Amino acid sequence: MLGLGSLFSCAKQNGAELSDFDAQAHSIQGSPGISYHFPMVITPNGDYLNDVYQMVVCFEIPPPDEISHFKLKIKQNGKVVYDTQDPLFAWNGTSISGKEISGFTNVNVELGLNGNSAKEHKLKLYVHRGNCIPESMSGLSFGDMIDPRYGSIYNTQEPICP
Fold it and tell me: What is the pLDDT of residues 110-156, one digit of tens each?
């Protein structure tokens, strides 16, 4: 079993509109009272706000060691740019080869809980590079919006572009 610790974790591109994507964090339900949240946008620009992509575990009571299998792959244009089996991962938007990634990516998460078979979850992530975010992105889920005890409750602190 993998132990749980403190786990901290869209605009228009290629013709895709914001309305094509759900604005809330991707959530996976675990045991009663426990859920796993993945933000939809990161902004790896060095300002310490949403610079990395991380899973956030939300729980009402201290969780048991319920993660028995974890595998995460991030792909862009069909190529794996990041992969890990560590649930305490923190991806900074840089590919395995060291290239800075930007734009839409696909995230595949295999999550097995309490020794049960792993289930695959397909998520989307937008990597935005810049010192401010377009207003159209302000309603999307950023990592700084998720409280480990209560889920998505905060507004992002990312500055909005004028």
Answer: 988 888 888 899 999 999 998 888 888 877 888 888 776 666 667 78
Domain that holds residue 34: 18-152
Inside any domain, residue 90: yes
Find how far residue 90's CA is from the centre of its chain: 9
Identity of residue 1 = M
Residue 160 falls within a domain, yes or no? Answer: no
- C-beta atoms surrounding 62 within 10 Å: 7
109, amino acid identity: V
Name the 3-class secondary structure at 145.
helix
- Around Cβ 87, how many Cβ atoms within 10 Å? 21
Nearest in space to 76 (alpha carbons), one of 111, 48, 101: 101
Q: Would you say 42 and 125 are in contact if contact means Cβ atoms under 8 Å apart? A: yes
Number of domains in the chain: 1
For the beta carbon of residue 70, count every other beta carbon within 10 angstroms. Answer: 20
Question: What are the strands of the beta sheet with 56-59, ordered from one edge?
Answer: 26-29, 34-38, 56-59
| 80-110 confidence digits (pLDDT tens) | 999 999 988 999 999 999 999 999 999 999 9
In a domain, 162, yes or no: no
Domain of 101, CATH number, reads 2.60.40.1220
